[in-house]
Amino acid sequence: MSRLVYVLNGPNLNLLGKRQPHIYGHETLADVERDCRALAEELGLQIRFHQSNREYELIDWIHEARETAAGIVINPAAFTHTSVAILDALNTFEGSVIEVHISNVHKREEFRHHSFVSKRADGVIAGFGTQGYLLGLRRVANLLDEKKDSA
Ligand code: DQA
């Protein structure tokens, strides 16, 4: 079975490290990618790591993942709260979906409390900083191992 995982990042996350560091921290997205790649190697996962400010690109990567991947770890950023289209795309994906937010969205403005993506996600991680991505990868690896053991 494929051990490919897509790690997808939504709008403004290209500015991670520079953008509101009191909320999102000082690590850049390149740091996150480096840490994800190191952990993926340890867990025997392959990863494709992407960021876009455009909703359709995220949707296209989810469609691509449908064909090849076992899991998606996604921080949809502001699209979390607005995008039925990303929810619909994720609903076409059969593998594991983990939703990640760097900040604790529930401690923040009311409009961040609702997530369309959570209607599909198998797990949601919020408020663990950029470590959330690593926890998400570990969860996908565990789910894959569980599936393998029960096969
Ligand atoms: C975020 C939280 C969202 O509400 C926000 O729009 C983001 C980042 C997070 O990682 O904490 O851009 O997804």
TrEMBL record:
<dbReference type="GO" id="GO:0019631">
    <property type="term" value="P:quinate catabolic process"/>
</dbReference>
<dbReference type="InterPro" id="IPR018509">
    <property type="entry name" value="DHquinase_II_CS"/>
</dbReference>
<keyword id="KW-0456">Lyase</keyword>
<feature type="binding site">
    <location>
        <position position="112"/>
    </location>
    <ligand>
        <name>substrate</name>
    </ligand>
</feature>
<feature type="binding site">
    <location>
        <position position="75"/>
    </location>
    <ligand>
        <name>substrate</name>
    </ligand>
</feature>
<feature type="active site" description="Proton donor">
    <location>
        <position position="101"/>
    </location>
</feature>
<feature type="site" description="Transition state stabilizer">
    <location>
        <position position="19"/>
    </location>
</feature>
<comment type="similarity">
    <text>Belongs to the type-II 3-dehydroquinase family.</text>
</comment>
<comment type="function">
    <text>Catalyzes a trans-dehydration via an enolate intermediate.</text>
</comment>
<feature type="binding site">
    <location>
        <position position="88"/>
    </location>
    <ligand>
        <name>substrate</name>
    </ligand>
</feature>
<dbReference type="Pfam" id="PF01220">
    <property type="entry name" value="DHquinase_II"/>
</dbReference>
<dbReference type="GO" id="GO:0008652">
    <property type="term" value="P:amino acid biosynthetic process"/>
</dbReference>
<comment type="pathway">
    <text>Metabolic intermediate biosynthesis; chorismate biosynthesis; chorismate from D-erythrose 4-phosphate and phosphoenolpyruvate: step 3/7.</text>
</comment>
<comment type="subunit">
    <text>Homododecamer.</text>
</comment>
<keyword id="KW-0028">Amino-acid biosynthesis</keyword>
<dbReference type="GO" id="GO:0009423">
    <property type="term" value="P:chorismate biosynthetic process"/>
</dbReference>
<feature type="active site" description="Proton acceptor">
    <location>
        <position position="24"/>
    </location>
</feature>
<dbReference type="GO" id="GO:0009073">
    <property type="term" value="P:aromatic amino acid family biosynthetic process"/>
</dbReference>
<feature type="binding site">
    <location>
        <begin position="102"/>
        <end position="103"/>
    </location>
    <ligand>
        <name>substrate</name>
    </ligand>
</feature>
<dbReference type="GO" id="GO:0003855">
    <property type="term" value="F:3-dehydroquinate dehydratase activity"/>
</dbReference>
<dbReference type="InterPro" id="IPR001874">
    <property type="entry name" value="DHquinase_II"/>
</dbReference>
<dbReference type="InterPro" id="IPR036441">
    <property type="entry name" value="DHquinase_II_sf"/>
</dbReference>
<keyword id="KW-0057">Aromatic amino acid biosynthesis</keyword>
<protein>
    <recommendedName>
        <fullName>3-dehydroquinate dehydratase</fullName>
        <ecNumber>4.2.1.10</ecNumber>
    </recommendedName>
</protein>
<feature type="binding site">
    <location>
        <position position="81"/>
    </location>
    <ligand>
        <name>substrate</name>
    </ligand>
</feature>
